[in-house]
């Protein structure tokens, strides 16, 4: 073959038929060769990162090998008016953001932010490469953690970082910067309202009959609920499951349970409790009716 007629060609590693070629080419450069299991581990998992070079047109003789590295996905710092505010801890039993959006699939930073923005929510979070969360408050006293925890590639764009395992890449809408953080506490007084007790509700026989569903789930706070109850002419109000507001004119008290059962942070005020799953955080006005035993 004339030297001027030869060129270099490349092809991807093609499995076991190339294994011995790869071993021989690398062994020649090593003072202490690897065992075959080392090759199999890397080549079976990342065959796309191994390129075998050969002289063309005689492609049956391999003359070299290239092992590539996979770039770490990068954080998108700003999209629309949403700014990346870091990597935060998360927990399936105590979520940082209240609203999970499973319809955002495949996931990119843009698709998750677009969804949260369309819902009018101030926060968007991406986790584990494939999960999109939205909300108006940073819940459950979750904390900033090193960005190295948020390097999982998005399913819809491998060049973008979409959080990690138990780590959420968080974005804040700069037009709505007044989000709240935990830890939450029990609001005991608001205007003329006083906190009374934590009680267990019954879905089939509600303690308070009127659900104030005019309050969006992601905008719940003690103040907003009790103002709504007062405007409706009710003397008893209760918050439940972080997002529900119930009102009525009923006799008090109800049978109490441990106050620790009312431990869900409000969806719009992360520093306040708003009842619990199936548990009412009950407030009353001076006009409320109390029964005597």
Automatic annotation (TrEMBL):
InterPro entries linked: Sialate-O-sulfotransferase, WSC_carb-bd
Record key words, sorted: Repeat
PROSITE patterns on file: WSC
SMART domains in the cross-refs: WSC (SM00321)
Domain WSC stretches: 81-174, 192-286
Entries under Pfam families matching the protein: WSC
Name of protein: WSC-domain-containing protein
């Amino acid at each position: 073959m004339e030297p001027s007629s030869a060129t270099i060609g490349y092809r991807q590693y093609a499995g076991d038929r190339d294994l011995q070629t790869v071993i021989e080419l690398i062994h020649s450069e090593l003072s202490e060769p690897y065992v075959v299991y080392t090759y199999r581990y890397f080549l079976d998992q990342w065959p796309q990162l191994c390129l075998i070079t050969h002289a063309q047109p005689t492609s049956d003789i391999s003359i070299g090998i290239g092992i590539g590295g996979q770039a770490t996905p990068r954080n998108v710092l700003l999209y629309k008016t949403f700014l990346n505010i870091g990597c935060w801890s998360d927990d399936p039993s105590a979520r940082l953001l209240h609203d999970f959006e499973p319809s955002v699939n495949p996931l990119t930073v843009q698709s998750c932010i677009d969804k949260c923005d369309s819902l009018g929510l101030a926060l968007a979070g991406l986790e584990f490469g494939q999960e999109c969360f939205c909300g108006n408050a940073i819940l459950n006293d979750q904390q900033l953690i090193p960005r190295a925890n948020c390097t999982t590639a998005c399913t819809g764009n491998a060049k973008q970082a979409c959080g990690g395992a138990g780590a959420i890449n968080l974005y804040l809408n700069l037009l709505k910067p007044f989000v709240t953080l935990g830890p939450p506490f029990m609001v005991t007084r608001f205007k003329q309202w006083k906190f009374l007790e934590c009680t267990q509700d019954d879905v089939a026989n509600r303690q308070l009959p009127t659900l104030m569903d005019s309050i969006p789930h992601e905008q719940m706070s003690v103040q907003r609920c009790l103002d709504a109850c007062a405007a409706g002419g009710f003397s008893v109000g209760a918050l439940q499951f972080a997002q529900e507001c119930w009102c009525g004119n009923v006799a008090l008290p109800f049978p109490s349970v441990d106050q620790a059962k009312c431990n869900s942070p409000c969806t719009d005020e992360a520093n306040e409790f708003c009842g619990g799953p199936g548990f009412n955080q009950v407030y009353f006005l001076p006009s409320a009716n109390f029964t005597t035993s």
